[in-house]
Amino acid sequence: MVSPTSQRTSMSHSLSEDKTCSLSSLSQRPVDLAQRSGNLMAQASPPEMSQEFSNSRASPEHRTRIPAQDHDDNMDKLAKMLGDALNATSELFYSNTSSNTPKPSPHKRDLSDGNISYRAATAMLASTNTNTTPTVSRPYVAAVAGIPSNPPTSSPFYTGLNGVNLEMDQKLVQMLWMSIVAAVLVVFAVRLAQLFVSYIRNIHCMTTERPSQQNYFSVDRSRLWAWLKKHLIYAPLGKKRHNRELQLSGAVNYGTLPSRVHTLILVLYAATNIVYCLILDWHNPQKGALYAELRGRSGILATVNLIPLVVLAQRNNIAIPILRVSFDTFNLFHRWIGRLVAVLSLIHFFAWLAAYKLAKGDQATIRIFKNAPFLDYGLLGLVAIVILPLHSLSPIRHAFYETFLHLHQSLAFLSLLGIYVHLDIMHLPAYPSILTAVLLFLGERVFRIGRLVYLNYSRTGGMTTAFVEALPGEACRVTFQLPRQITIRPGSHVYAYLPCVSLWMSHPFSVAWTNGESEPPIAGHDLLPQRPSTPNSLERQSVMNLVKQAPTSVSLVMVARTGMTKQLYDKARAAPDGQLKLRGFLEGPYAGHDSLVSYGTVVMFAGGGGITHHLIQIRHLLAGARAQTVATRRIVLVWSIRDVECMEWVKPWMNEILHMEGRREVLMIRVHVSKPTRRIDQSKSKSKTTMQIIQGRCDPGAVLDEILPNRIGATMVSVCGPGALADEVRAAVRSRIRLGNLELNEESFTW
Hints:
The chain is an alpha/beta fold. It folds into four domains: 4-149, no CATH class; 169-203 and 257-449, Four Helix Bundle (Hemerythrin (Met), subunit A) (Up-down Bundle); 459-520 and 544-591, Translation factors (Elongation Factor Tu (Ef-tu), domain 3, Beta Barrel), CATH 2.40.30; 601-747, Rossmann fold. It has a six-stranded parallel beta sheet with strand order 14-13-12-11-15-16, sandwiched between helices. The protein has a five-stranded antiparallel beta sheet with strand order 7-8-4-3-9. A three-stranded antiparallel beta sheet has the order 6-5-10. The longest helix has 40 residues, at 166-205. The protein starts with a helix and ends with a strand. Mean pLDDT is 80; it is low at 1-69, 92-154 and 520-532. Belongs to the ferric reductase (FRE) family.
């Protein structure tokens, strides 16, 4: 009988000899290895171990008489297989380890070092109903590699995906996307219904001779739709204030309030994300696991929300023409979703920090970020994401707009870069989301540059040139001569670049005028009255054809405020004759999807430079009314200005409108002068059918009370101007929504 001590010595000696065997000798002598392993089994199988197996199973007599006798024989064979597998695995591992790799420390549970006896390993295997199907022994591999044998439970919850509920994360992300798609489909369905109604109304009314033929459309036939417009769609958040800025002083304002429908959408979306973060396994006894689940949930939600965040900030957004939603509305959603992403990112960080502190205790240190690119880039993205909404607050944004824009774009790039590398290093499940956001961000920038080059450069026409003229009332009339011909729809706006004033910065302006038709009122049909051809008429026709083929010129009115507009005005006023010729560029046109052609009555309110939004629309509607391609039969323009000299801003274009054929029967203009420098003699104003100049502020409610009783068909009320005027018009429309079929269109640039 071999003593236990000499038995362990023999087994250790045999294992030590086997460890020196190279991988090549192992592959060349498989038979010898099996024989040596068999000898090891014989040496390490004393009678007492056999007795342990026999006592826990059947007696030797039973093993020779019943089929179950093979059980212990199988266990002996399995023990032999285990010995072979352990030794072979040990040799394979150490033979493939480079010479500079340190050997496992004594505390590691390496079977080949004798820390776990063969007797104990065999006894544990024999005492369990272990499946003997050959499988990869992951706990053993982990033990040899020097890592814990059960990573999901023993690894710290602040590393990798330990404790993260990936299955639930994916389900909630899918639910979030489904809610976004559902909201988009609802808006799309509403827009389709509105377009269909507008099309039918225009087809029916555009050839009517008498105003009474549009009476059917003068009343809203749906009580529900009228109620929704008054209490939800057109309603401000509170009683009246919406676009009027919240001001602490004349120089500091806190931005505007969202409308009621916008607030409802934003609250539901934010609440959905917060609720998804709270769907955790609260019954888990391990706090670290709870922190890990919250870390994973908030992280993937923050990353997924980057996609709509990037899309909503893009000028070249395909959703704008499809959904007929203004960029101003998308910009509002962009700001609030950006704040939501910042909150989710902070939750992600503090959940990781709590798990790290819980695992390390007093050993937790900031040095964990040293030489850790995964953590460093994540911290870079977090800092940029958090700074973005802080520096985007309205007082900072309005006081230092150009500085804000530079910093905002730089931080946006850094945040995407940091998050991208953070997720790419570990190949985390949120990587496709950040990749999509980055591609959308870069793709839109490339498309914008390509569009800018195409619009402002051509081989035959050269490059765009800007002509600047200083005007009374501290404004400039800027005309961009493009090198090519383009079509600009009514109600469009562009972004103007003037490098000599603001380098590469761009600013949005409504298109005040173009040298050609903004949109053909009737395809293949000239709007000039058909008369017998004469030499003079043929000459005029050829001149008009040349104008139609000429490159497009786009005129804007830039009222001097601060920054670029103020610098441009001062520079133009200091120039000889108050005129400048500069190198400039245009980007656009954008928007122009709000069509007014199906409304019999159109009322336009403008404040200051907001008149530029309406001029091309008036020209288009007058031309269409004469050609009987639109339903519009009455247009009322109400313009509020500080002084009469502001009328010089649009004088040449207004003269063209006043000389259009059929204008007297359709258009009426009312100019309200709030702060005239000299008394206005209203008796010298032109007739009521042409233009009225009225001293005093405009009362939108009184104007509508005068127009609505004599309205023709459906009525559109459009407003472009300061926030206070827009809020007054909105309140007047809402209070009279049941008096007729009233619609409201508001054009604004809130930044």
